[in-house]
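Weekly sync notes, structure subgroup
Attendees: PM, AL, DS (notes)

Item 1: joint prediction request from the bench team. They want all two components modeled as one assembly rather than separately. Inputs as received:
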Amino acid sequence: MTPLGEEELAGGIRQLIGEAEGSDPGPVSLSVVPGGASRETFGVEAGERRWVVRRDPVGAPDSFAPLELEFRVVGAAEAAGVRVPRPLAYEPAGGRLESAGFLMAYVPGISVAPRVLRRDELASARSALPAQLGEALARIHSIDGGEIDGVPASDTDPALAACALWEATLDEIGEPLPAVEAGLRWLRLNPPPAPVRESLVHGDFRLGNLIVDEDGLTAVIDWELCHSGDPAEDIGWLCVRSWRFGNDDLPVAGVGSLGQLLDAYERAGGERPEPERIRWWEAMGNVKWAVICARQAHDHLTGVRPSAELASLGRRICEPEWDLLELMPAASSQGAEGDRWSEPEARTRPGAAGCEEGRG
Amino acid sequence: MQDRPTAPELLDAMAADLYSEVREWVPRERRFRVLVLANLCAVIARELRAGEEPSRQDLALFASLNGSPADDAGEAARELAAKIRNGDLDDRLPEVIAGLREHVERKLEVARPGYATSAGAA
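Output from the run, pasted for the record:
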């Protein structure tokens, strides 16, 4: 599993747990949790007790935010009342986890979106989720990202910073994607006004990064894309059609309406963003997902992470491309001020077979 | 010339086998990988059946939006992407977006049929 050797890694994790909890847990066993594309996750067990270790893949290039920052941000989120797996100990690269990583409490539940959307026993969770997601987002957005050391912030408007980020990433990849470019160009020419207040943004808030049990949301995980920015970014991203996994008529992660989400968001102290702003970030979310697909396929092609799964994402770029262009105003209303956007809408389309069982 | 099955027919057979039987042999938490491979077989089969026509249509579209003839779709796409980025097509952006919708629809017909519908822009 690792050049360190599974036994050595398990021994190191046992020590970490001992230090964090103040008592030796005894021998621990490790299991790889499949799912993380850019970070490795291990389940850790000692008898009845369980923990989770998250670390950078050994030898992989730098990720978006260092794991040490992720450790701090999860702590800040917990303090702000967001449900998270309690962060227990950070270990830098070259330490007992080999690469940089951290130990956290185990939270039972499911983080595979299609299962959350289909399983019978999660029906009441699905009805509770839209409001729970709104509340969680409001709490995340109550955090001033600038107050946490190391949280990436842009020195320009967050909307234009997002345009620049994904343009630069496209250039790094080097594969031409004219549909993404056209959407990006429109977004660059029509940005929302600067947000009243910037906040911590989770950066990847969708069912695949949430743990859900029969009662609904139990933890927000995978904070690696967190940054300081426009709170509407998380809301728009949550509405991206790819995260509905076929429930196209329910814009919020395939479980609810935007109104349900925003009502709860406001009740929990969030400031309701204008519909056009959410729409802009939903379109930008499609840019982001298209570029991430292209980048992951590129990581396969360049041998950074050879994997048929990553390679297959090259044939999924066209899905967010389609949704991006669908979110562009109709050609006839171009330039007509006030007619540019409408509320993110439920779309009634047949779900396509094959991809829906995909990981969340 | 190879004997039958043709390449797409072989891929159909692989996809069917992966979807039905092989999937059942794999532990539940790893089945996603099998579905990815099965879906890829189905995508490649559709891509082979579609032949060169979608690329020819893309080449014509890109050349027309670029306003310059081209003989390679990839190169024409690169030129178009750069022109859009530079703002050279800003005054024709609605036309560019409408054209690229057709390009994306052609990709979806291979990669995920049914994803694009006639539902217009919101």
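Discussion: Chain B touches chain A through 50 residues (CB under 8 Å).
Action: AL to compare against the crosslinking data before next sync.
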